[in-house]
Amino acid sequence: MFHPKQSSAAVVMALALAGSVSAQCSLYRWSVPDFDQKRTGLPGNGGMYCVPTSATNWMAYISNQGFPPMMSGPRNWQSQANFGFVTTTDALMGSLMGTTTADGTYGGAGNDGLKAYMFARAPFLFTSTVWYDAITPLNVYVQMANKGLVDVCYGYYKQFPGPNGNYYVRDGGHCVTLTGIERACLGGNNPVFRVRDPADDGTLGTQSTFATATSRGPLETFNTTPLPGSAETRTRMLDFGVGSTTRRYLDTMYVIRANFACWAPAATSLPHIHLNFAAALFGDPGPAETTFVLPAGSFATCIAIHPDQTKIGYVLCTPVGAGATYRLIVKDLTDGGEQDLGLLLPAVQGKTPISFDRFGRLLACDGSVLKVFDIRSRVPGVVAMRTLASPASGLCFDDAHDEVVVLTPANARLIRLMPDLTPVADEPLPSDVPAMADGSVVPDPINHRFLVAAVGDGSVRELSMIGGTPRLMVSQTLLLPAVQSIQELKPADGGAFFVLGDGSVRILERNPASGLLQLSQTALYGGLPPMRCMSLSRSRTNFDPGLHTGPAWRNLPDADEGIAPVPDCAADYNLNGVVEVQDIFDFINGWLAGDPHADTDDSASLSVQDIFDFINLWLAGCP
Q: Contact at 8 Å (CB) between 318 and 324?
């Protein structure tokens, strides 16, 4: 259950005023389980299971907040009666994540396992993102404000002497479940992280009392190599590992959130971009649909979602006389702020395809020139470009192979490029693929194949490479029902692809027995009007095998974090450490205001029974 200290409007204002004393940016999630990773029944008694256990915390939370199949909920997860079931689930999660008793869990495999677990239990409803970076308190706050369920991982950075002073190198790490952040906008030593630590108890056969550990999270600059100019600024978990020369810096973030569609209506009289969420957890902030208003007379022609899912890129078309102008815009989904990256030339039929690579750079077709924009700086710029022989109508990034895939219909070619736009292959489409005045392409994340379709066509063709060559052939053709016409193909989780057509979203999946493409019976985003363009959130990671593989990047628990967590006490409603009459007043005010923290019985709704249950807990006091 989600509890902001500010209203939704105040959250937006807080982000806009980040850094001011009035904008403290504090957010909490209540009723999050605190499972122990050290438990009988896990390989090695679970000593290396911090990543699977942190993820399992969220699976149990989701199952109690509106989606029981995620982990057979709702249940009282504190109860010892569920210990065996939690162990079995944790073991499955670790198996899917490739967790071992020697090396713990690495981020790439961790995200793959979490994605597979969620897709098997709630297909197309939730996504997971793993992001490696200098994670700041504001980064974490933005993810929580954008409906994210967050696990943070901090590395153990050991100290070494060097000619330019001490430097710090990662040597393992640990992951915890984030239940709150306080004063994220103030900087300095003020931000505080509230976490459920899977390693806070060592009793193997007993579920410990759920407890919360806290740590300040100041930003610190330190050297990462003996060489000059190697300084980085990261968030330090200052209160963990007290007295040790090893420092703990945030460097990885797992985020789970409901899948969402970002789309623009087909009618040019509706200058809007909409977000529709496929699922809503009890207490989530904001509505199931959000609308961003564009300038009057304009409309979006293409939309792409950033891999961290807090931003989108879109092309804004503004008719001018007999022509139009096209601008590339990046919008922050949390505060609505925008970056204007400048004018683009249209590519095919007034279409300017764009896509994010998995590292967060924005790819855009500027006429016949493909450009890569680095949007991480305050002054975004083009970091790579390549002139194509023909304008592109389809553009997508292949996460599995780190390739840019481009479809150029005028000369009927499929082009593959490295992220820096170095050529990989430039091949003609097979002769049995019909001419595409305006087509789209998506790579298959499981097989190194590609799906192509043309606007208005009723077929999707799968292209595969002829053995030992980059040459393409049609390996399968799927005919859609006569009433279904294709507008655009989009990638999504689960080896499936979404088809946009006639205002409906259809899912292409593979038959588990034959491996052939088929239309899924699953329906999402029903009732949406005809759309001009659309993008769907999906699980992604900027995991770099060259940087994040090896013992330094394994995630495992430290023997002692040096701080004792505070056991939960439901009777202390205002969390001031004392059970008193004021807790009753604060509870009643929260219950009347619909505060999810007042859901005493974890029923994913507020009822009179919550009041009775709280009074009983208050009378019983705290241990």
A: yes
